[in-house]
Amino acid sequence: MSPPPPLALREELREKRFSTIWKRDLHDIFVDVAPYYDRANFVASLGLWNWFRSSFMATIPVAPDLRVLDVCAGTNAVGIALLKREPNLKVHAIDRSEAMQTVGRQRAEALGLHIDSTICDVHTIPFPDNYFDRVTLQYATRHLRVEEIFKEIRRVLKPGGSFHHCDMLRPGSPTVEKLYYGYLRSCLAITGLLFRSGTAAMNAKKYFIDALEMFYSADELSEVLRRQGFCDVSAKTLLAGMIGFHRAVKPQP
């Protein structure tokens, strides 16, 4: 386990190392895992998945008629949870994976909930400036060009609107980091066998660890948000920094 590259070089080196996987392999990985994604995460987290989600949801204030954009919405877990709290939200999901969004639409419809959906590359968000009151992004940033997507999110947020981010992070402690990666290697193998993952997902086990090793700690991600022009940046971590929630606001003019 080597230390991560300096913050100023992190994005350049992440893209250099992972761009081929991001462009070529992620589509097939998420086609593979879409049918069992939520169940696999519940097992891999030792049953803590719902706690992670409810803790994140508690950081997002909602009110009737707010426009919410859920970036990399996957199976619509965030949108569904928000609509259960406030049915009069206007929720739009974007994701590059049609397979994941198909599962997400089915889940929402089964609950009588409506979430608009767009399939696209999330690095170019197909909405005008200053459009959304809230933007959320959960468990996907490790697979994205971080500075680029944060810049787009800031663009589509209304002044005073808030961005709410959740992801697995690189723990600040080297000891915790070593134990964390050891556990992930084991659980990725076990869940892959348990859910009969296909070749694409099984071949991605090393990538998932490598992506975390080159990702950000909670403090580093806060700094990236500030560099992209957000204000009032705050962070909360769970499990010694393994999971992190960030809130950031688009400044008023």
Automatic annotation (TrEMBL):
GO terms for molecular function: methyltransferase activity. GO terms for biological process: menaquinone biosynthetic process; methylation. Its EC number is 2.1.1.-. It comes from the Bacteria. The keyword Transferase applies. This is Ubiquinone/menaquinone biosynthesis methyltransferase UbiE. PANTHER family: 2-METHOXY-6-POLYPRENYL-1,4-BENZOQUINOL METHYLASE, MITOCHONDRIAL (PTHR43591:SF24), METHYLTRANSFERASE (PTHR43591). InterPro entries: SAM-dependent_MTases_sf, UbiE/COQ5_MeTrFase. It is an enzyme of class 2 (transferase). Keywords: Menaquinone biosynthesis, Methyltransferase, S-adenosyl-L-methionine, Transferase, Ubiquinone.
